[in-house]
Each structure stands twice: as structure tokens, then as C-alpha cells.
Specification:
heterodimer; A: about 120 residues; 6 strands; about 25% helix; B: about 290 residues; alpha/beta; Alpha-Beta Plaits; nine-stranded mixed β-sheet; 10 helices
Chain lengths: ~120, ~290
């Protein structure tokens, strides 16, 4: 199963980015094979619909779990519709987020945050 | 001295400001009556000029944009359309293609790349155009529907068949797409500012915009109370034409709050007549 963690850098030790649509990288981690790659978020620089562009990459990568801080209404609905589970976390590094998830300490995001929050 | 009717030698003059609340609509409606120019409210997100002009014989029609429709039977989920869309208006869930109508700019690039020809377009209403009359003046306005994010199609629809001028285009505040698209139809511009730091800050952006579009322009200082040397210094430095000042007075606010025309107050009538004279001089000879 693939997990995507929203991050500022390309490695798990780098800072976790609480934004979804405007994060810099998605760190793709496979529960069987370990860390796979850092995927540059195409949504970060888009004029509008950043969350949608970001969500498309998550779907295209067959990711099943996303670890992020918040998600806007469009992306949230797409994740819900596509059956991707989103967990809320507030950690310093991506590695910490992953460990908390693996220990079952993260709770599922059950509502969308405000739109355009990541642009502030 | 009174301005003679229809002596203005240009077609569309845009009234803009940078900062909101400086008095674009106040200037546009009063000058429209004094210059016998048609009034076109391009601030389609909040058109308010009709409150003051109170036109009659209003007719209206809807404004539509084209929005993609996916024939899910024909669609093979190749994702070419979602890749092509520059506005993230299409989404491939791998079970179906979803359309985010409000992000769509109606460019139709998606249909160019759709090989199974599963894409067609349907009209979607986003606003209304209203056309009325106030004596000799035509009064038009665009109204964007509540909840619609894109004003530009309504502005373009309003201005593409504008009456033969002179027309005053009451623009959106700011220097965004909405103001730029109104300016594309203009041959001259009037910038309205106020003697405040914010007024000057945003005015500078509006000046850059009209200079970039190479439009002749002049400036009106509204809410003038005789103190604003920082404005005058900037005008001098940039060699900008000042068309006149509109005095700051409680009487003006009271009149405005009741939907009245400032030109009905003698002091303001005089100010607007002076400005009208300068408008003709400055925008005609440039």
C-alpha cells in the first residue's frame, strides 16, 4: 500500500508541509518496499484548482493513504470519492508523521478545511 | 462653462482606481450626465451605478459560458483531457472524468485532444446583462451570478457590443483580470484616488497598468481636504495630469447614502464641470 506525505523537501527527514494543494513534494512510501520517491506537486504553482491538480497526482500514483495537515473542499471530496484515506498530522518531519501513522496515532480527516488556505 | 453635448472625441473611457472605495462610481455617474456619455457598469461583481442613475426601460438577457460535458460511455479514461486542462477543471478518478465547471475557462482545449470524441459543450449561465436609459444616456450593466468566480466573460459580453460612444466604463477596483479586460476596450482612462497612503499605493499600480497599455489618462483626487502633498509630489515626478479635485464634505456622504447625485449640490456640480472640461482636453489631445 502506498502512502503520500506532504513535505517541503525530497526526503523523509525533511519538514512536513501541513498544506495539501500547495505543498512542494509528495513523499511516496510503500508499506512493503519502503521509501519510493519524492514527487513534485504540480498543484503548488497553479493559479487555481491546486488541490485538484494535487489530488490527480495522488490518484495517478495509486496512493491509498495521505498524511497532511489540511485539505480544501475540492481535494477532500475527490479523495473521499476515490476512496483515499486522509489522516491529519501536525509534526515537524515527514518521518515523524509516518511513524505516528504506523503506530495508529493519527486520526482521519473528517471534514474539509477552508479553500485557498495554503496560499496564505 | 457648460460642456457641449457629444463633443468628446473618444469612444470608451475607463474609470478605475486601484484602491476600492475612492469614488469610481460617484465620478462615473456624475460625469456621464454632465458629458452626456453612456454609462457602462463593468464592476459586475458589485454593480451599483444604477442606484444613482435610476435608468428606466430596462431589458435584460443572460450571459453564458461553454462548459464541457463528458459522454462517459464513449470516454476511455485516457486522461488526455485532464493533462491538457491548464485550469485543473477536469479530474480523472479512473472510473469517470469529473468536471469542475467553475474552474473552466471555456478554452475547449480538452475537446481537441479527446480521441474517442467523448467531449461536447453545453451553455452554462453565469450572469445577466441589463440595458436601460436615463434621458439621452444609455445605462448598461453586467451582473455576475452569486457564487460564480469568473467575471471576465460577463465584462466582455457587456463591452463587445458597446453603444457608439462616448461611454464611461465603471471598472472593478484593483488591477486584476476584471480591470484589465475592461481596459482592453478603452481608449482612455480616468483614475480616481484619495489623499491617503493606501489610495496612493494602489493608484501607483493602476498608473503602471494604464501606462503599460499605453492609454492616455488623467487623475481625479476625491475626498480632497487640501492636505496631500505626497500625492502632488508623485504626480509631479511622474508628470501625471490631474483632472481636478472633488471636495471632502459630510454633505457628499449624506447625498450618496440616499442614492443621490453629487452634481445636485452646487459646489460639486462646479467641481464636476471643471473636471469634465479637463477630461475633454486631456483625453482628446493625447
Amino acid at each position: 500500500m502506498k502512502i503520500a506525505i506532504t513535505g517541503y523537501g525530497q526526503e523523509l527527514k525533511d519538514n512536513h508541509d501541513p498544506r495539501f494543494g500547495r505543498c512542494t513534494y509528495f513523499l511516496i512510501y510503500d508499506t512493503e518496499q519502503g521509501f519510493l520517491k519524492a514527487l513534485e506537486n504540480k498543484g503548488q504553482l497553479s493559479e487555481g484548482g491546486a488541490g485538484i491538480a494535487a489530488a490527480q497526482q495522488i490518484i495517478d500514483e495509486d496512493v491509498q493513504v495521505v498524511l497532511t495537515g489540511n485539505m480544501g473542499p475540492n481535494a477532500y471530496n475527490l479523495m473521499e470519492k476515490s476512496g483515499v484515506k486522509v489522516y491529519r498530522c501536525k509534526t515537524n518531519s515527514c518521518q515523524e508523521a509516518l511513524e505516528l501513522y504506523q503506530d495508529g496515532k493519527l486520526s482521519e480527516l473528517n471534514e474539509a478545511g477552508p479553500s485557498h488556505a495554503g496560499m496564505k | 462653462m457648460a460642456v457641449k453635448e457629444n463633443e468628446v472625441g473618444f469612444m470608451n473611457i475607463a474609470v478605475l482606481s486601484g484602491k476600492g472605495g475612492t469614488g469610481k462610481t460617484t465620478v462615473a455617474v456624475n460625469l456621464a450626465e454632465i458629458l452626456t456619455a453612456n454609462y457602462l457598469d463593468c464592476d459586475v461583481e458589485e454593480p451599483n451605478g444604477f442606484i444613482f442613475l435610476k435608468p428606466s426601460e430596462i431589458t435584460s438577457r443572460d450571459v453564458h459560458v461553454l462548459s464541457p460535458v463528458i459522454d462517459q460511455e464513449q470516454c476511455n479514461l485516457c486522461g488526455e483531457c485532464t493533462e491538457t486542462c491548464q485550469f485543473n477543471a477536469l479530474f480523472n478518478t479512473k472510473k469517470e472524468i469529473l468536471v469542475f465547471e467553475k474552474l473552466c475557462h471555456s478554452c475547449q482545449a480538452c475537446s481537441l485532444v479527446c480521441r474517442p470524441e467523448a467531449l461536447s459543450f453545453q451553455e452554462r449561465k453565469i450572469g445577466v446583462l441589463e440595458k436601460g436609459k436615463k434621458e439621452k444616456i444609455q445605462c448598461w450593466r453586467g451582473i455576475l451570478d452569486v457564487g460564480e468566480p469568473m467575471a471576465v466573460p460577463v465584462i466582455r459580453e457587456l463591452l463587445k457590443d458597446a453603444p457608439s460612444g462616448p461611454n464611461l466604463l465603471d471598472c472593478s477596483p484593483g488591477t486584476s483580470c476584471n480591470a484589465v479586460n475592461s481596459l482592453r476596450f478603452a481608449q482612455g482612462a480616468i483614475l480616481v484616488t484619495e489623499p491617503s497612503a493606501f489610495g496612493l499605493h494602489d493608484l501607483k499600480m493602476a498608473v503602471k497598468l494604464v501606462q503599460g497599455l499605453k492609454l492616455p489618462f488623467g487623475i481625479i483626487i476625491n475626498k480632497w481636504h487640501g492636505e496631500g502633498s505626497f500625492l502632488e509630489e508623485y504626480f509631479k515626478e511622474e508628470k501625471i495630469n490631474v483632472l481636478g479635485q472633488i471636495p471632502y464634505d459630510r454633505k457628499a456622504a449624506e447625498k450618496y447614502s440616499r442614492g443621490g447625485m453629487l452634481k445636485d449640490i452646487p459646489v460639486y456640480r462646479e467641481a464636476f464641470h471643471k473636471i469634465a472640461e479637463r477630461v475633454r482636453e486631456v483625453l482628446k489631445c493625447n
